[in-house]
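[Automated response] Your request has been received and processed.

Submitted sequence:
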Amino acid sequence: MFNASLGETAETARGKVIRTQQGSRGHAVYGPYESLPSGRYKVTFRLEADALGDDTALALVDVAAEFGQRLLAYDFVFASQFQSGVAEIELPFEISDSAALEYRVHVAGSVPLRVYDAPSVSRLAEDASTEASRGSVRTTDLLRHRRPLLKAFYDAGATLRRSTDGMTITFSGVTFNANCYDDVNFVDELFTKSAYNFLSPHDTCVIDVGMNVGLASLLFAAKPFVTEVHSFEPFEETFTRGLANLRLNPNLAAKIKPTMVGLSDADESAIFRVADTRGDSGGQSTQDVAGGIPTRLELREAAAVLRPIVTSARARGLRVVVKVDCEGAEFPLFKSLSRDDLLQEIDALMVEWHRVLPGKDQTELIQPLLDRGFLVFDLTPPSGNGFFYAARLSACREGGKAFEYRAAR
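Generated structure:
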C-alpha cells in the first residue's frame, strides 16, 4: 500500500510505484498485513532514483509486526547501493509466531525516489543467514555496531552521510563527523537525551569547559539566544577534531572561540601520562595514569582566564551559563572559581562530574553553589559519573538560608 501524501502513484510495466517528492519524509510503502508460518524469509524491495549526490541514507526498509510496534528487521538504503539508478535491497528476517506483517519503505525526503509496491517475499533455508545483505555498500564497524542508535537518529530526522572514516551526521541544524563508537554515544547524549538543552529568555554567553570534539559548543551556538561560546580543550588531537567539526558549520563557528588549554586551579605546562582513549570521543583526563601516553598539556588558572569573559558578558547585559565536562578537572576548576569569588557572577551551570579522585564527590562542587544562592538539581546515580544542574535565581541573589549539603551514599 502507498502513502499518497508523499507523492504520486502510477502503473508501470514493473508494477505499481509511488514517485515521492523531495522534502517529503515518511513511510511511502506499508502493509500488506499478511501472516506467514514461522520460519526464515527474505523480502526484496525495489527503489529507483534519477539524480544521486553523496552517499546519504535515502531510505530505511523494514519488516514490522503488530502494526509497526515490533521490528523484525531493518536496514538503511544508501545512495551507493543504487546501480544505474536502481537499488534492489534484500532484507532477511525470521518469525517464530503468527503476526500481521508489514514490509515498509521509509523515505528521508532528500531526493525524489520511485518506490515499488508489493515487495517480493521468499522463504529461506533454515540454515540461511538473517544478516542483512547490503549489496555494494561498504559496511563499516560504525554502521555494523551502532545501527540501533543511528536508526534512532534517522527516525528523529537526522541526515546520515557515509564518509571515508565513518559518517557525517546533520542533526538539529548541526553537522559533524562521527568516526568512532563513542562519537555516536556522545551524539545520543547531547542530541536525543538533551543533556545540555537549556533555554533562556535572555541573550547568553556560554562557557564550554571540556569542548571535546565540539558538539556541545555547536549545539549551544545553534540556539538563537546564545550570542557567543568560549570553549576550552587541552588535548591537541581532540581539539583538532573539534576544529574540523566547526569548519562544517561556518555560520555557527562564527559564534565560537575555541582555545587549546585546560582550566585548573593554577597555571601549569607539564607532561602528563594520559590514558589511551583513542576509541572515545576525546574522553581524556589530566589525571596521571600508570603506563599512560606522555602528553604535554597547557593548563591555566580558571578564574584568571574566565573573569575577563564573564565581566565582558555581564557588562553587555548577557547571562552567563557554564557547561563543565572535563574528566575530573572539575574539582580544581571549582576550587579556582570559588576562591576567586567568580561563581556568583555565573547564572547557571551544567556539570558532569567524575569519580576519579579518592574521597571527592559532588558535595565539594555543589556546596559552594548552595552557599551562593544557587538552586541545584543533583542527578547523580549511586555509581558512575554524575550530572547536576544549578541556577542562581534572581530571588536568591541577596543570599538565602544556610544549608549544608551531604551527597547520598
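Summary generated for your ticket: The domain at 195-396 is CATH 3.40.50.150 (Rossmann fold). The longest strand covers residues 39-48.
If you did not submit this request, please reply to this message.
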